[in-house]
Amino acid sequence: MSIYDYTVQTTEGTNLSLSQYKGKVLLIVNTATHCGFTPQYEGLESLYQEFSKKGFEILDFPCNQFMNQAPENNQDLASFCQIRYHTTFQTFAKLQVNGKNTHPLYRYLKQNEPKKKGLLSMLKGSRIPWNFTKFLVDRNGRIIARFAPTVTPETIQKEIQSLIEEQ
After folding, report:
1. Which member of 3, 27, 29, 35 is catalytic?
2. What domains does the chain contain, in order, with CATH numbers?
3. Label partner for 42 (CA 20 to 30 A): which of 61, 78, 105, 118?
4. 35 is an active site residue
């Protein structure tokens, strides 16, 4: 299996194959509209504006598993992001990132993230701790890194640029 074998749902309820993102650098983020990290949407949009014409995509997956911080329906979630943060990247339907109903994409992301060194190696496959956990994926569909919610989009700009320049 690869990341391109998964299908996700748009906010309109249609299925979309991630195979359409082959050859692009991806930043996959579980988000929420009522979270202390929600202002990260500004940084995400800034990254998208800077790199989208060079083969970069942000895949925004709202998740309501953390203290009910994304209670809106799918279309209202997308509208909130577009109106409040002027996002132009794709917002998908809500999904679950932990537990028995974890979406298969997130199960794959957690199980295939790069191994960490030392004691942190035990974290591979671990639960998503909170909203705005980020996965960086290269043009070949390999998961390059997993970033904690506290890591801001601006902090990973150089890593994204490096992957884009690899071509």
Report:
1. 35
2. 3-166 (3.40.30.10)
3. 105
4. yes
